[in-house]
Write a structure and sequence with these properties.
CATH superfamily: Calycin beta-barrel core domain
CATH class: Mainly Beta
Number of domains: 1
Distance between the termini: 25 Å
Order of helices and strands: EEEEEEEEEEEE
Shape: globular
Number of helices: 0
């Protein structure tokens, strides 16, 4: 996959085991401007994560993003159908003008709660956003990658690592086409 060939920045930890995330010099509140408006999405998602699965599920979805908070944030709605049932997801992205880091929060119609944020920034139109999480009762690292080098066809992807970032398993890709 085009964006899989991009390298994930090395993950660093402080003395307490917390992630050290530093903003790129070019990080700005305008990093997600390419994503404003509506997109049609082709999703490609692993059927099972961190199990050496190589079976992918593909499905269509739509997404619409708009800016909030005088431009230091944005929200998008993700609409899809899973197993014949409607599914809605929502992302809230907030830019901290002091740290120059983005925090990305996710919620969906299954849980109704906000996930812990992934945090990071863009450099050269590619953004990496990290978090520590738990998956199947095991600690994992998670990364979201936004590849906006082709602003009319951005790619979002997600990977997880169960070995503190030494290896990563890509488990979801969204290939977007701007529709407005």
């Amino acid at each position: 996959m085009k964006n899989e060939s991009l390298e994930i920045p090395k993950v660093a930890f402080d003395e307490n085991g917390e992630l050290l995330i530093t903003a790129s010099k070019s990080s700005s509140k305008d990093d997600f401007d390419f994503f404003q408006g509506k997109s049609v999405i082709r999703n490609r998602k692993l059927k099972s994560r961190l199990t050496n699965c190589d079976e992918w599920i593909e499905f269509p979805s739509t997404q619409e993003m708009y800016k909030i908070l005088n431009g230091i944030g944005n929200i998008d709605n993700f609409l899809a159908t899973f197993d014949g049932k409607p599914f809605e997801g929502m992302t809230v992205r907030l830019f901290n003008p002091i740290t120059k880091l983005w925090s990305i929060y996710w919620s969906d119609s299954t849980t109704g709660t906000l996930d812990k944020p992934v945090v990071g920034s863009f450099e050269n139109k590619v953004g990496h956003f990290f978090s520590k999480d738990v998956f199947d009762e095991k600690p994992v690292l998670q990364v979201f990658r936004w590849d906006a080098r082709d602003e009319k066809n951005p790619i979002w992807s997600q990977a997880m690592s169960d070995d503190k970032g030494e290896t990563w398993e890509w488990n979801w890709y969204m290939f977007m086409t701007k529709s407005s």
